[in-house]
Amino acid sequence: MRLGRRSLLSSLPVLAAPGTCRAAAQTNEPLRIATIETLSGPGSGVNRLYSIGTRQGVAMLNAAGGFNGRPIEFREYDAQGTTSVAAERFRAAAADGIHIFVHGGSSAIAGQLIEDLRRHNMRNPARRMIFLNTGAEALELTGEKCNAFHFRLTTNAEIRVRALVAAMRAQGALGSRVVSINQNYSWGRDMEGAITAAAAAGGYEVVERILHDTNRIQDFSPFAARIAAARPSAVITGNWGNDLALLLRAVSAAGLRISFGTCFLDLPGSLSAAGDAAVGYYQAEVFNPIAFGAEGETMMEEYRARAGTFPSTSEVKAVLSMQFLGKALASLPPGTGPDTTRIAAALVAAQLRLPIGEMAIRAEDRQLIQPLVVSHVVKGSRYPIDGTDMGFEPVGVVPGPEAVNPVQASCRLERPA
Amino acid sequence: MTASVAETPMAAPPSRSRAIGVALGSLLLLVLPALATDRYLETATRGLIASLFALAFNLLWRHCRLLSFGHAAYFGAGMFATIHAMRAAEAGSLDLPLPLMPLMGLLAGAVLGLVCGALATIRTGTYFAMITLAISELVHSFGPQFGSLFGGESGLSAMRMPWAGFAFGDARQVYVLVLAWALAGAAALWLFGMTPLGRTAFAVGENETRLRFLGMRTHAVKTATFCASAAASGLAGALLAVANENVDYSIFGGGASAAPVMHTFIGGAGTFLGPVLGAVLLTGFGSIVGQATRLWLLYQGIFFVLVVMLAPGGLAGLVAAGLRRSADGQAAKALRATALVLAGALLVTCAVVFAGETLSEVLSDAYSAARATTGMRFPPVERLGLAYSPLSLPLWAAAAAAFLGGVLLLRRAMRP
Predict the structure, then answer these.
(1) d(CA B161, CA A19)
(2) A115, B245: Cβ pair inside 8 Å?
(3) Which among B409, B389, B303, B387 is positioned nearest to B353, based on CA atoms?
(4) Which CATH architecture fits A30-155+287-370?
(5) pLDDT, tens digit, 9 for 90 and up, residues B88-117
(6) Which of A73, B22, B201, B223 is the most core-located residue (most Cβ within 10 A)?
(7) SS3 label, residue A91
(8) Which residues of A, range 104-143, sit inside 8 Å of B by Cβ?
(9) Which fold is adopted by the domain B35-297?
């Protein structure tokens, strides 16, 4: 026991010493970017796409000269599908001197990371980190959890619904009776709220609201029956994965021909599982290779030359995010080190011109304002996906300012000093 | 009859070598903050928490022979209780210093454990396991429903508040706090086995019918043991809450319940410290190997299968057997067996890692990208610091030879 106590005492001065402090942003330091993503285990099939895309995006930035005359360093951290491991990886990334971390796979993990970011930046004002969110859409990330160093470079429930409603209405595919069917967790509830909120602008009435268990239901025929009983003109759903595929099959099996507005029909596995039942259904997303015209084609081919395959939408979103970051980095005067406070300010001011419009950050809540392509599923597409002959044909583009949701009242940004 | 009671659960190494082991281990834990970087301290913190959780789980199994498949419920209850307390402290409505926060988890685990334990321990064996599983699934299904209690998928966050000049902002201070509580928890679990209640619980595991015949209220004994186990699990959860400052309902899922089971049976359920060995090994494995390769789950699975097949007593059982042999004057024989096991394990590991990494590289997105850019059908693989052709016959032959040789050595070592 005496031995133990002595060694405890001798280690006390070390314990009380402040954490090893790196000199803030030495100008010759390379910029370090990392993804914290689920790369192994369940969920990795879809989530790692964001990491693959980010890797390619960083490689493109490096091909264009990197940052500050040095190549940008890139690393990957495996969140292993849980928030607990994600928290551990966040601290590993902070210890490794990562300046910018990227996550897109899950709103739950993003919710953990944004809290870790808040605490880290509060405790280490000399080496703050930046969180680039390439795919987590929970409203709270730009609501009550919003953070000046978190940038949501993707859509959220309200943006998706506003774009879907605007384009479907213009197509005459919306009608006046809409059914909302969603998964019973924050994303699905966000979607239901958004569908209800857009009713006045879309000129429809929400005739049925369904929230069902997430990823547990094997038979959607009772829900198909409820949808049929409501006699809707259109259905809008935020479902993804199995819940989307099974829902579409049940609706098709029940012989219903109603137009569907969806958000994740383009994720790997959805179209192949839904089969022909998906033809004609709508989807709102930032990227569509056909809508991007010649530039879209170049992007697809260039990506294939680098990565061997055409990119999924998730990969393109990650690449676009890196290009947006590239714009911000290019706006900094030469000789600026990887100073995250200045990079964050540059991100707020950055603009990226896409063939369909401009991408820019809204300063009040760090939500990206971007145009959305609304497309529908056709057979015999030029860019077939998911091993089917189906793909997405654009039907309209909704400009960013029209699609973006109003700033949430719950967001109070603490501006960096 | 008392002889058999003393023998079976106590497949422990001789007391002197055990004392040396414990002393060395504690010393290492105490000087670790001075040696390790923040990253490894993080991993060590996780290892401590997983160890305490596995010890708590094994309390039930080792004493009462009750196998719980739902201990995540009590671990999670401890986490949520602690996070709520920390949030209250952050908001200024609760005046509890951070070092005492884990008590909230202990309390929550104990209360939930008392209620659920009284229910679950009415049955034994498979039925008991099913009831514990059902309870944890029930708690898990509440997760998405009560937003203010569980905080939805992104969960609840809190911040460690400074106390007495400690900011608790860096990994060292958190490590010391977790270490203190984990050691206290482990000591309490050890002492539990010494109490009359703990001895009776052992007897329940041996022959419950006989105890009941003697007039013992075995249900009460099992409930009390369950409650103690749940309280220690809650304490472990509380420590994770303090370290993570965040919790969400996914902690109630099957993965969290499976972890202590894996740790315990890989480490060795028959000895008190066996689960610690398993927890430390697997936590370190997930953290270090998990960062180096995506195949870590595969390797962990192979490891689990090998341990269960070749060493049913777990790793601690192997160590104990070796130590007992050398104490019996068969030191040379024990040493030879150890060398054989190590050599065999090394050879098998090399072969499996080579095959696994090469195949995963060939199937990876980066490789298909390399295939597209170089135009070669099988461009060289760059893995493990080498560049080699994935079709190299000599390398594959060497791997196959290493695998076969390793298995032969292991079988030879296991022969009595």
Answers:
(1) 17
(2) yes
(3) B303
(4) 3-Layer(aba) Sandwich (3.40)
(5) 988 888 888 888 899 999 999 999 999 999
(6) B201
(7) helix
(8) 106-108, 110-112, 115-116, 118-119, 122-123, 138, 140
(9) ABC transporter involved in vitamin B12 uptake, BtuC (1.10.3470)
